[in-house]
Prior knowledge:
- This protein is mainly alpha-helical.
- The chain has 23 helices and 2 strands.
- The protein has a two-stranded parallel ribbon with strand order 1-2.
- α5 (83-110) runs parallel beside α20 (478-507), α8 packs across α11 (267-294) and α9 (187-207) crosses α17.
- The chain is globular and about 70 Å long.
- It is found in: Cell membrane.
Amino acid sequence: MVQVIWLVVTVLALFTVGYLGYSRYLAQFVELDDSRETPAHKYEDGQEYVPAKKPVLLGHHYSSIAGGAPIVGPITAGVVWGWVPALAWIAIGNPLLGSVHDFVSLSSSLRHDGKSIGYIIGEYVGERGKNMLLWFAFLTIVLVVAVFALVVAIVFNAYPEAATASLVYIVLAVLFGIYLYQLNLPFLLGTFVFVVAMFVGVYAGIQYPVALFEPAARAPAETFVLFSGSGSWLPGASSFNGNTAAWVPLILVYGAIASALPVWVLLQPRDYLSSFLLYAGVGGALVAIVAGTFFTTPTQPLVTNLEPYYGFIGRSGAPLFPLLFITIACGTISGFHSLVSSGTTSKQLNKESDARVIGYGGMLGEGLLATVALATVAIIAPDVGGGIGLALPTFAAGGGVILSSFGIPTSFGGPFMALVLVSFLLTSTDTAVRLGRYMMEEIVGTPETPVEEFATNRYGNAFVQSLPAYILITSGSWLTLWQLFGGANQLLAALALLTATVWLANWDDSKQLLSTGLPMALMTTITSLGLLWLAFHDNLYAKFLNPEWMASAGTFAMVSAVVQIVLALVLVYLALSLAKIGYDNIKDARSSGGGGGSGGRPQPGDD
């Protein structure tokens, strides 16, 4: 056994080297210059383009990117292949790939008036390339909605206390929005009152846990069950249980409604309150690991109870290559971050030098969250035979053990860490639905037909995303669904790196393309292979060519498997097609000398 503090020390050491060394080089490479006017100042409108102080924008950016994925991925990978491969991918991949991806996505958007990566790629390869990238991102969003809704349901089943606390948390966020934006009451006083109330909500969840049907075995005996029976008749109940299956559609409905509300009603106040959960949960866990190792005595030793390595074919029968690299997406590298970096963040950057700490440093911060998640599962070491329904709640259980170093009872620390996980996931779910609508609006432009009007309508678009997400969930194949999401997310990251490489090639023919080109080629290759494995092995071979599966599979499972195959193949086709278009552009730019253009080195008078 190894003390978990060494996991944290390893990551901190490599992250420090990356930030002090590589990020400094990248900042010089893209020629960050504080004398150049940022889009936030150039187009300041009080709505989207608003200069923000560095600490404020870092908090917003970090809470936007640090969703549930950097928690779920490391937990899943650690249980399947052991903690060493998971730690290595986080500690090495993050500073060399993920942080580079976030930084160049933000930097390229800065030089294109705060526009998205879809717009940027369209500037160089045309409208067809732009629409292909937007379609790719939209399909990825559907997978995001599916996996996060399922994970929330799994945690609600394991921790009914978190279900009650989450309901209180959502109500408090709405009230805080009214307090701030409708009543215009004091900000600091409101912050204090609502943050305290949020922690009181955790206590309320412990006292009054709620479930829809019979919950998991660990649920408190006093859990209030709304409906009698097991709920075994619900789609997906045979793979999880009735309570989990019942929560899924409610969470999807919540995501659809929340995504359609004005941002002041729920999104902004909820994200602000979430930041305090983030600081208390993640920051507290990191400090508690140090305290529990050197100064205090936690409820159990803070050591790794998972094996370091379970072999190339992990405990679930999945090969480490290429599936490890798509199982851990966020926490190492995430295409979703390019949408945030080139979306809201680039429109709020006060000065160009802030891009280094926010873009590169923010991703390192998410790597620390992934490390905490890996530490929690290493301490608890769940049986892989229990599936993700057992593995996921270990973040809460392991987090409770870690927080016990401060003398916090695990009966409080566990549900609190479950709420930390769920708050991130709920945020990511409805934010993803909202982003999906924005992408569809950009694809369609001005609606001219009833179908286009429905696809861009805030309620119709939510239905378009939620229905296939629900079908995917009912397949019951958690690992396949998560890796399908991870593959799509990683390919989106490859396309964001492709966009940055195209930008650099057209900017100046003296710019080296290895910092973005090599990670782009690596992620395109690995994730394409991973998605092809999921399509042909895990779905076609293991399901449709398996008589036993065919004999027992229901209609929902079969439809879900078909959807997964089609999605995987479409995503690979879109990615490889875009890579070919981007490569041709880079070759043409270099053969013609590159330079200039709207995406190149700013010319005199551009400011």
